[in-house]
Design brief:
Layout: H1 11-28, H2 33-42, H3 48-73, H4 77-80, H5 83-106, H6 109-130, H7 147-168, H8 173-182, H9 188-212, H10 219-242, H11 249-268
């Protein structure tokens, strides 16, 4: 990994970085946490383990805010038909997040950096591929399929997503939404709302685990980085949500996927 520059971690810088990341995330329907992690490590100079914990805490702020905003503007009724799948996925994700945070604290920084590099490149590649996929599909296990099979797959996907989310400090929307759409046949808006419902307890468990393991011993991290970057991310995400459709989401996903891959390789590449 390349040496991280020494920078002044000012609240203003956190806001200025958080806002455009949230804006871009809002334009494509994500929270932007996968793009915050390279910033926390490469720009703010945090070690991988602390960067993951702080990123997860900022994700909690953005997910909670997005859920409140979405709940006030959209009906939650369409999610009811997807509720059994969402609950099964939530159970798997929460369980994996609980174990994943412990893993983050047990492995070496170098090994964690390797995991982060692979996962960020994978997510970047998924964004590039998703740019060329249709937005509405029937799904591999759409509503009406054998319920026990849907619940089993939902739990397995939840375990996988919860583990990745805990290793990167992300809410997992970049994985939950495509899973709900392409596997379970959910509409994109319904999948977005369900993703927030699944992410909230998953991220909350991860943050509490990090707290118990001493990740937030330095309070200045919360006041100078988490709070202002969370504020910037929320403002940016809300603004991005208002301009959905102005910029083609597919083209933006392609560009951001490439940027994520390049950023991950530059910041977390092995020495």
């Amino acid at each position: 990994m390349v040496p991280k520059p020494q920078v002044r971690r000012s609240p203003l810088a956190a806001v200025l970085y958080g806002a455009p990341i949230g804006l871009l995330g809002g334009l494509i329907g994500l929270g932007g946490a996968e793009f915050r992690l390279p910033v926390l490590a490469g720009v703010f100079g945090y070690a991988a383990r602390r960067a993951v914990a702080l990123n997860l805490t900022i994700s909690l702020v953005t997910v909670l805010s997005a859920l409140i905003i979405r709940g006030g503007t959209l009906s939650l009724a369409p999610v009811l038909g997807l509720l059994p799948v969402a609950l099964a996925m939530m159970a798997g994700a929460v369980s994996a997040a609980f174990a994943g945070v412990a893993l983050v604290h047990r492995i070496s920084e170098r090994m964690l950096e390797r995991f982060i590099l692979v996962l960020l490149v994978g997510i970047g590649g998924a964004l590039v591929v998703e740019a060329f996929l249709p937005q509405e599909v029937s799904g591999f296990l759409p509503e009406g399929s054998w319920l026990p099979l849907r619940l089993a797959f939902a739990t397995l996907f939840g375990l996988f997503i919860g583990l990745i989310g805990s290793l990167l400090g992300v809410a997992g929307g970049e994985l939950i939404i495509p899973t709900l759409v392409f596997v379970f046949g959910a509409g994109i808006k319904t999948a977005g709302t369900a993703s927030l419902l699944i992410s909230l307890p998953t991220v909350a468990v991860g943050v509490l685990r990090h707290r118990r393991l001493g990740s937030f011993a330095e309070r200045t991290d919360l006041t100078q980085t988490v709070a202002p970057m969370g504020l910037g991310s929320v403002v940016g995400a809300v603004t991005g949500g208002l301009f959905v459709g102005v910029v083609p989401a597919a083209a933006l996903k392609f560009v951001l996927g490439i940027i994520l891959i390049v950023s991950a390789v530059r910041i977390f590449r092995l020495s």
